[in-house]
Amino acid sequence: MIYLYALGFSFLLVLLLVPIVRAFALKIGFVDRPTKRKVHSAPIPLSGGLAIYGGVIATTWIFLGNTPILRVLALGGGLLVAIGLIDDAYKSYGREFPIWPRLIVYIGVSLIPSAFGISIAGISAPSRSAMILFSPGWAAFFTLLWVFALINMLNFIDGIDGLASGVCVISAFTLFAASLIGAQNVTALIGVALAGACLAFLVYNFHPARIFMGDAGATFLGFTLAVTAIEGTLKGATLLSLSVPMLALGVPILDTIIVFARRLLEGKGLHRADNLHTHHSLMKWGLTQVQTVTFLYLIAAVFSLLSIVVLLVLR
């Protein structure tokens, strides 16, 4: 029952916060202006990440208390939201924020989970009869790679109305189910808190969007999903169970692989924004925004169901 309460509280809190941050963003001109590579035709407020962050952190604190994972999410997420808001502020004035400050913050934030004891500790055999433990240095390194990748992957797919928030709802519910199966009550609660926050945001973000989460929101979502996956399924995963979080987060992972492959083939910088993402391709083929998002939701749902099947088979 506590999970339903957490889901409802997170949903209602973000539902109330979004109009407040939206009105403030419009008042100060904190908006995403249309460009050639963007699909919206009017300025849209960029402050949604603040509401999502507030909803997830408040819900986690109320229902879990001041736990290590809350401190990780609050500190790391706060830094990501701060640098994301600065980046979004540059965009609102038609300027490009330098990549290096973001890169430094992303790497620093990716080291925070290990500092609080949340890391990928090792890999065990399928039978779990033997486990290869990583040294603290290697554990921190693999954790950094995973967290850094998810921070960027969620940011990459945040290109059309409702995509990142909707995919995050599916992924969060999947990690919730995986946590319940593994009797991981803490990560189960974080999963429903994140799902509730993203569901509420989706009310305002589905096409036609009235607000965007911006880099502040997308990077926070990626960070929260990454940390939840580590604590819930990756701490001492078997070789086969590694597929569970990979499938649960299949859409952003697959999109990133496709985009990076295309950029490499075309000789473009990996960090350069473009219209090579899966959602751009689907819309070029004639799908509307709603059709594109719905199709990618279905793909995410299939990946998520497969991840739960894998987890049940491995038990």
How many domains comprise the coordinates?
A: 1
Biggest sheet: strands side by side, in what order? 1-2
Mean pLDDT, to the nearest integer, reads 86
Low-confidence stretches: none
What separation lies between the terminal Cα atoms?
25 Å
Strand element count: 4
SSE order in H/E notation? HEEHHHEEHHHHHHHH
What is the CA-based Rg, rounded? 19 Å
- What structural category characterises the helix and strand content? mainly alpha
Q: How would you sum up the major sheet?
A: 2 strands, antiparallel
Strand content: under 5%
Tell me the helix content: over 70%
- The number of distinct helices, counting runs of at least 4 residues, comes to 12
Overall body shape: globular
Keyphrases for this structure?
3% strand, mainly alpha, two-stranded antiparallel ribbon, 315 residues, two-stranded antiparallel sheet
